[in-house]
Amino acid sequence: MLFPSEDGKRKPVRVAVILASMLFVTGCGIGKPKPLLSGPPAAAQVGPAIPVAPVERPLESARFSRFPCGILESDQVAALIVDPPEKVARGGGREGMLGCAWSAPNKPTLGIYHAVVKPNNLAELVEVKEGNPQQYPGWRELSIDGIPVAEYVPRYIPGACDLYLGISDTEMLLVEYAVNGPSSSQYWGDDSCAGARKAAEFVIANLRRA
User: Fold this and answer.
1) Is this prediction's pTM over 0.90?
2) H or E segment to which residue 162 belongs
3) What is the phi-psi region of residue 96: left when phi exceeds 0, alpha when psi lies from -120 to 50, beta otherwise?
């Protein structure tokens, strides 16, 4: 490779020198991105079952409805999907539900949805479950930060765990976390419900701050 000198003549410049200069200038951008978290996240703080209505500490859904994919911060996505989260893709809702889904190649998937058709609150869902309990295997009622939660293992998504959050007397959110195939979660292993509970804890805390 040749470059002109000040006197108009061309002098050879070694490629190695150029590469070394490029490495010096851009060195901070070379290598794998660093994780956002300094260590594994703490497990969600789960409480006992509480009445599904009335919800004593309801949440406003307006922030979620305006921008569902903005309900989680980058470090929270890292804690749930992959850390660092540079390759995480975000998608839309699903039939009958407004929301967002997060995924990355060979990593867990997460969907957070606002039910807009019946059953669209936790009391209605409990009524449906009581009439057809076999459709809700592993059903468990609990609470997270004062919000009633129903947890079960859906039949239609292998390796998934569903959590329905009764955010008010008339509204609920679905948190669906699934470990895909042989790839376990970076921080939650094969425990999809642990990942779903942590996602629910993040959502509740973020809505409380809205």
Assistant:
1) no
2) strand 160-165
3) left
